[in-house]
Amino acid sequence: MYNLIKNLLFRFPPENIHYQVMKGLQILHSLPMGRKLVHTYCMPARKDLEKKLWGLTFKNPVGLAAGFDKDAKYTDELASLGFGFVEIGTVTPVAQPGNDQPRLFRLPKDKALINRMGFNNGGAVAAAKRLQKRRSDIIIGGNIGKNKITPNEEAISDYEKCFHALFDVVDYFVVNVSSPNTPNLRALQEKEPLKQLLHHLQTLNSLKTKPKPILLKIAPDLTDSQLDDIIEIIQETKLAGIVATNTTISREGLQTPEAEVTAIGAGGLSGLPVKERATQVIKYIHQHTNGSIPIIAVGGIFTAADAQEKLDAGASLVQVYTGFVYEGPTIVKKICAGLK
Questions:
Q1: Where does the source fall among the domains of life (predicted)?
Q2: Under a CB-based contact definition with an 8 Å cutoff, are residues 280 and 303 in contact?
């Protein structure tokens, strides 16, 4: 059924159809019978997949990755689709339009997306106000970043502003220094600037009565020595965990014609082409830390087998994004049904 609908949806520009579909879900969810229909069609039947981590109880281990609900506009609707948690953002201190459109592209032959959105969002304060009004009890992650115009030397201030704005309305934080679509952002993954940033956020966190888990989202393009540095920093700063991985700048092994990929241009690649590398990164971190650092896996998860592969590699939770676009609203139900 969804394949027929997808063929129709894929005839329209990706970013435009995203907002149209989510607006339709909002309308459907606002109707009592509509909400019941969505729940019946999409909610996982299994009740034995509950996961406790960082003092939080996840109803199931399948979450929605950051980037889909940037401004926390659809958290209640997404909860009705069965997600165990939703990560909003990336949000920045000040609203910004992001990069010029078109900036989101489908690669159906590769079951992939390329995006260069550029942290388009309405700002951390606006997102916080929406989260204050939400009705569902779904666990919310706050993915935070810096504004495009903020130089790296002042990036800590941007992350601090986001941290304070969202602290009371999210359950955990994710520090995003790995998006390829904000100029020079990935330079913050280097050892010294990253250490300074995470130390600062953990200091702020320690001043709170009930500190929140803070995680770091990393790129799949890091070398083993860079991963070793990341592990050392995570252990030194006592961060709660890692989200592995973000999108890749690589274009290797794609089935889509090279001319078409070249015409699309810059951006982060997500979906099936990232699957193997994301799993490799998860395995490396898990093995080199003896499983002491919790990992949220993201990258190429379309099926229960894909999710199980990530969990077997050492992840505690998984997230979908591109898989959600390609597999449709029952993806959580199908993944949960097939997990061990």
A1: Bacteria
A2: no
Q: Confirm whether residue 19 is marked as ligand binding.
A: no
Q: Which residues are catalytic?
A: 179
Spatial contact of 226 and 189, defined as CB atoms under 8 Å apart: yes
Question: What single letter denotes the amino acid at residue 132?
Answer: Q
Residue 69 labeled ligand binder: yes
Instruction: Provide the number of structural domains found in the chain.
Output: 1
Structure confidence at residue 1 as a pLDDT band (50, 70, 90):
confident
Paired strand residues for 216: 175, 242
Please tell me whether 143 is known to bind a ligand: yes
In a domain, 29, yes or no: no
Q: Which domain holds residue 291?
A: 46-97+119-174+182-246+273-333
Q: Which residue has the tokens 């093995």?
A: 287
Q: What tokens does 297 get?
A: 């896996």
Residue 159 forms part of a structural domain: yes
Query: At what angle are helices 304-313 and 275-288 packed, to 10 degrees?
Result: 30
In single-letter form, the type of residue at position 2 comes to Y
CATH code of residue 160: 3.20.20.70
Query: Does residue 26 fall inside a structural domain?
Result: no
pLDDT tens, 219-257? 999 999 999 999 999 999 999 999 999 999 999 999 999
> Among candidates 317, 270, 235, which has minimal Cα distance to 115?
270
Distance CA 308, CA 293 (A): 18
Q: Is 260 helix (H, G, I), strand (E, B) or coil?
A: helix
pLDDT tens readout for residues 154-198: 999 999 999 999 999 999 999 999 999 998 999 999 999 999 999
Give exposure, 305-332, as e/b (b: 16+ Cβ within 10 Å): ebbbbbbebbbbbbbbbbbbbbbbbbbb
d(CA 67, CA 64): 9
Q: For residues 63 and 113, is the Cβ–Cβ distance under 8 A?
A: no
- Map tokens 């602290």 to a residue: 167
Taking the C-alpha atoms of residue 245 and residue 139, their distance in angstroms, rounded to an integer, is 20
Domain assignment present for 318: yes
